[in-house]
Amino acid sequence: MKQRIDQIPTIWFIFSSLIGLFCLGIYVWGGIEGLAWEEVSELIPQSISLFPESNNTTQSSIFLVRQHYYVKLIAPVFWPIVVGAFLAIFGLTLLGQFLQSWAKVNWRQILLGILVWCGIIFWRNIELSPKEWFGFLHSPLIIISVIAAGWLCILSSSAIPSFMLEISHGPDKASSQRKFVGFLLFYLVNLILSMGNLWGFWTSTLYVPAFIILETSFALGMFRSLRLEDKSQQKLFAALFLLSHSILIPFLWNNNEVGIRAIESWGIMTHMAMILLFPVFLWANFKEPIQQNLAIYKVIHKAHFIPIYLIQIGVFILCVSWVFARQGTSWHQIVAAYYNEQGDVEHFGGGRMLEEMAYKNAMIHSKLNQKSNLSLARISQIAGDVEKQAYYLQTSQIKYPQEKNFVALANIYGNENQWFESLFTLKKAHQLFPESAQIATQLSRVYEQLKQLDSAAYFAVMAKELAPKTPITWANLLYFDVHHRSKIVQKNEIALWSTSSDRAVKSNLLALLWQKNQALPADYTQEALDFQLDVRDFAYIYTSSLYFKGQSTVYPIQTWIKDPNWLQKFPEIAFLDAWQDFYHQQPLRALNKLDLLVQRENETKAQEYLPILHHWKQQLLEVKAKVRLENVSQARSAIQNYPFSVGILQQALPLLHQASKHQEAYQASLAAVQWNEEQAEFYPIFINESFQQGEISYAEEAMARLKKLDPALYQTHAAAFSVAKEKAVNRQKF
């Protein structure tokens, strides 16, 4: 049991180190941003010759894919807040143990007081829902955690100087002093550089960021506290550590940057104050050991003339004065961070009005902080208030401009058809971020909207040069080449991009080769992709089906049509269904579907589909199949593939009758006549089938039609028609 108790400090140090490393990892990663890139794909129709192999001039539209970027406003994440709440509860428990040990109050009295307090709070707020309870209790937790973080910065501000004191001890007094002074000066210079970057005095990369210094001091302070014999002091430091990180984790993850900056500023100030007062503490308490070059950290339990807590109180007073000497910047930042955190909690509680109010309260204390502005822009977007959304996006980029903010703002102007405003916004962004492929892509789109094609092509090429491995830039260049015939795509790029698996690239590349009547690269393959309800997927399916015709992959189009989302988003899929049927051994069904589309669609679409319908019918008439049918299976297959072949019908229909498939035979002859009313050669077949089915009136109408179309052919079959009619009449007598 004693061995386990002895292991607790080690386990606790490992646990706290993991929490610190986790926070450092989030800091380096940057947390979730308020804005995120999203690729947007548009279908752009392009007229093209459908049947170049047959010298047919029938034109129809395929779809090119034009892509640009949409900036999505990101909502906060809830789990860091929950993790922080659990750490805060754990920290409060340890803090309660410290207070009980320090005040020597009986546990029963503490528990009784807590129960009474909780009972009163519950009785006065009994009507609150669980979500409201979480928000109600989380608010004081934020305040306590922020205070704990402030005190932890003060308590751990001596950790790094103490560590330097240990590692600088040398064999003689002079070397020890040189090392310690050197370390201290290096540390002080780094603090000054970090402070200057944090407060915007200068820009430098030759420094260790303030947050890393804080986490290092926290870890060293935790390690030093575990060596103390006073267990209550260990609990105090552990409680402050947990409470501090209970607020750091949600601040970092949800990118509450104003709170992180406030804690960094306070931490830098406490460390700078401590580095000035720490030598005074050493000389006042350890003058004799220093002169004898003794390891001071080994005689740390010597009675202090000036206790360390007096130094820490001095650091607190000095830093508070410093804060308000700077117009209370850090104070306003931490208050703004508090309201931002409240707004995040209200977001998950569903209180939209309270959420908006919290973010606006944050802006009272820090108008230019990104967290509040982007959160309010997200709320305005949901409410459909475009003007407010644009205002908050503009405000968020005044102090910390980002390319995503500019693109989001430009998109708003574009959606409102204010393309010149969008252009000016993007040109300013391009000056600040000349290496941004996303901004170049947006500029190309805006110039295209303004009909300035040379500038649009220039920025499309620039986007590809800035992001040579990004498929969206390839697809846009291919689109530009096909739609505007700009010839900006190089031959070597076509060979390179043919291996891409991106559907927009494959679709646009296929359209380019089709338009230029060039052969496909050897590396271009039709892929069996898992297609989704996506613009790029549909463009690839549509273009490849029209291009490859009978050699294309058979897609489950009829399954997709049953989903109303497909038809609503891509109504052209109905035409694609007919096209696939025609080129995959269902020509008659394809004709029926396309004929129905011609009748149902508007005049423009009907005029586009009619030539295709006529071409298909003519193509079926021109087919002269020479096959010998021997059984009913072959007969049915032949009729399906060649429904307008007289020779096939003459062979196949008797085989269907032998298998008692009389209705199928009649329907095959009827379809041939219906689709070819001016072709006399199909009428004798239909007339005989009608008499055999007892459809005497239909047969007589067909004979009258045949007599007008081709009198000679009618006379040739007149005797046979009379015999067939007599048999049909006799069958009806019984």
UniProtKB/TrEMBL annotation:
Keywords: Membrane, Transmembrane, Transmembrane helix. InterPro entries: TPR-like_helical_dom_sf (IPR011990). The chain crosses the membrane at residues 12-32, 73-95, 107-126, 138-160, 180-200, 206-224, 236-253, 265-284, 305-325. It comes from the Bacteria. The keyword Transmembrane helix applies. This is Tetratricopeptide repeat protein. It comes from Aquirufa salirivi. The lineage of its organism: Bacteria, Pseudomonadati, Bacteroidota, Cytophagia, Cytophagales.
